[in-house]
């Protein structure tokens, strides 16, 4: 059986070592990192931290999010749920780190969070369960705090070693969230670890077939925003039609959740249909952006999205 093994060390927000490179993330290792003693750590509501609320409003104003988040009822429900999300302060400080040094990752993290709330509302009725589910959104990429900024913002294809370091963010996030929440079994930690796995086993870090609704929601939100947003490695983004066509293609091949993609498509419709009434068309009329190095590394290697 494959095992989770760190390719690089993981340090906390103070730079203190949590686990060395090469560590196998066994049950014992994860319980140990969850119990590492630190100075008292406070918590804070995400929406009260720095400029999160105002930044989200700015992000919602840009297409296609201006359609997705349009409507008083939809926005009220989103902000009501988001307002209940409380996090350890070091995780919020990591968001601030990205805001200063890698604004794409900051913006992406918040939009994946917001989009995952809308999707979760359509698929999960229980409010308590919903709050637990959406907590994974603002921290799914927190492991990128352990990846050099030079790699995250690189405008040319990654080298194999840079790609390995980038992929490290999934397990680094698992370790960090287990540590700060003091619980290796918390859903947010498992989603951080698994959000680049795929339903057909084509993802990483282990290449296992993923079957988790929360991971499916974050997975779809993550890929969608990656396609339609500015990225360091391409001159222009996917237009919304082409992005949705790509999401449908991946759903049809069994890589990502067909149901979650249907919800995403319904959210993009101005007529506001229920996702159960939304038919996914396999017709492709869009075209990916030119000069796009998404999915490539330097010669003879394969890459996944940043």
TrEMBL record:
Residues 83-278 form the HD-GYP domain. It holds the Pfam family HD_5. It comes from the Bacteria. PROSITE patterns: HD_GYP (PS51832). Residues 294-306 have a biased composition (Polar residues). Residues 280-306 are annotated as: Disordered. InterPro entries: HD/PDEase_dom (IPR003607), HD_GYP_dom (IPR037522). SUPFAM superfamilies: HD-domain/PDEase-like. CDD domains: HDc. This is HD-GYP domain-containing protein.
